[in-house]
Site-2 protease family protein
Amino acid sequence: MTFVLLSILLGILTYWVIRRGVATMTRSPVWLLWLIIMTPILALTLWVLRYGKYAPPHVAILGLFIICPLVYTWVVLLGRRPPVQTVSKKSAAAAAATAIARPMPASPPPMLMAKEDEDRLRTCFPWSVYFLQKIERRQQQMICRGRLKATPAVAHSTVQQNVRSQFGDQFLVVLQEERNGQPIFTLSPNRAPAATAKGGGWLLSLGLFILTLGTTTLAGLLLVGELSLPELRSQPVILVKGLGYSLAVMMILAVRELAHYAAARYHRIPASPPFFIPVPYFLGTIGAFVRIKAPAPHRRALFDLGLAGPLAGFIVSLPIVWWGLAHSQVVDLTAESSLLNFQSLDPRGSVLLALLSKLAFGNSLQMDQAIYLHAVAIAGCLGLVLTALNLMPVGQLDGGHIVHAMYGRWGGAAIGNIARILVAAMVFIQSEYLLWALLLVFMPSQDEPALDDLSELDGVRDTLGLVAMALLVLIVLPMPYAISTRLF
């Protein structure tokens, strides 16, 4: 049943990712893309519902995982939206001649900038800062190519101020790098978020917080006890027993998202209050989020946004895990023991969790034993899982922001693709990572650029970024058997 619920959540998240990201790049139907990429997990879900604990045929499942991403990529490319380009007179005449036999397409949307405004735009690029050579006009973007003559920070600040003096806040000015390493300026519409009633966002956040507190309290009871819903209706006072799990989970989520919010406000980036997501089953929540409403001004801000949440969540999770493990029980290791079995958790599935468990239990925990987790320990372990998931260096996850800020947009995308392959390989070692690997496959590999996407980080942030990636490895990798035999 847990696998089916996770599959439903994965399907919802996948549809949202495709709708928000991939749908803007292709004309292929969203439902078709979703169906293709979800085929492997749908097949696994049907197998679990039909045949229970019998293992599915590995060749068939592996074939689906190989074929479906290839078909998905082909369908995306088949409906790829062509860029709007300036055509020559000959090509225009040829196009007009061939268009006689075809129906006339709908008129394209107006260009981002009128032709007569280009001269004003050219004056925004001093030759001593950025030697402008060419301007490409697109419907929703102006691409300015040239040679960088000053430091990225000086060049972006100068050009941005000049564009604002000429056009006001009409455009977002981005200094970024192409695949060939050439620095370019791009101008795109500044779609400022619509003004909302003052305090309305915080009222909604408070309402979702209270609702999620209720669902996690109920989940805390159902996770650790043999209680049924009729018993809860007849004795509602026993809900208090679920507060340990609930308060621990809510503290981890709240601190994590408030750290995101504080980092955004520190860099003067508009952001929404933390919004919690309640679910009336399983864990009681699928997390919380802060909506960032504008691009990061530079890579330093992007790094701080990426690191603040996972670091704060990890710091809060550590004492919660420690206290919870100290109040947990040691049980015999069985075939059902795993990293996701709260009644028989095998701590050797994670290096960090194995070390924490050994520190908490000492010689009481041996190789042939598992842990029956206390409710607070479950909350702490979920905090570690959320930390690891968000530190994954893929796309717009926090880890994606970190590697983007450290190695640039294209370097970060390459690291993200490598991370996907490594997580997919880990599925053959620990099947618990299957849904995780699928979720990473569906995410876009590229992060959105910062406004100044060329200025590099300082040494302190680079070091903190490497520490964050090392923490990810400690949480995700299983304890090697040779070390386990010595440790336990």
DSSP finds 16 helices and eight strands in the chain. The chain has a mean pLDDT of 82. The first helix runs from residue 2 to 20.
